[in-house]
Amino acid sequence: MEDARYQTGLGALEKITGSSGSAVVESLKDIAPDLADWIIQFSYGDVLSRANLDLKSRQLATVAALTAMGTAYPQLKVHIQGALNVGCTKVEIIEVILQMAVFAGFPAAINGINAAREIFQQEER
């Protein structure tokens, strides 16, 4: 059972984040291997792999949540890239970040826009 969760999680991690998510997980293995496993098994294997919501919707929800948190800039950038990877448009990503100005405040939305700018500029290179 655990192996199936892990494999499902690895597949979802790769599909959503490409190599950036794998790099994050690998960077944790020397100091917190359990956290690395939880990310793969629970976050990606159990939650992000559920069939009731498509990956685009999940990534937009994730971008919204990370923007609203205002404390997860590196993770926000990974998930903005992930949103692009699963087919979200730049316009959709910007709209979900703009909506966070209402619920999380203008500073959170500005930080989210800046994260999006960085990712979009990387995409253009």
Give structural notes.
The protein is an all-alpha fold. It is built from 7 helices and no strands. It has helices at residues 2-17, 19-28, 33-47, 55-69, 73-85, 90-104, 106-124. Helix 5 (73-85) crosses helix 7 (106-124). The termini are far apart. Residues 33-118 form the Carboxymuconolactone decarboxylase-like domain. It holds the Pfam family CMD. This is 4-carboxymuconolactone decarboxylase. GO terms for molecular function: peroxiredoxin activity.
Report the average pLDDT across residues: 95
Shape: globular
CATH architecture of the largest domain: Up-down Bundle
Share of helix, binned: over 70%
Number of strands: 0
Total tally of structural domains: 2
Helical segment count: 7
Largest β-sheet summary: none
CATH topology title of the largest domain: AhpD-like
Radius of gyration: 15 Å
Can you identify the CATH class of the largest domain?
Mainly Alpha
* Structural class computed from helices and strand pairing: mainly alpha
**Percentage of residues in DSSP E strands:** under 5%
The parts where pLDDT drops under 50 for at least 5 residues are none
What would CATH call the homologous superfamily of the largest domain? AhpD-like
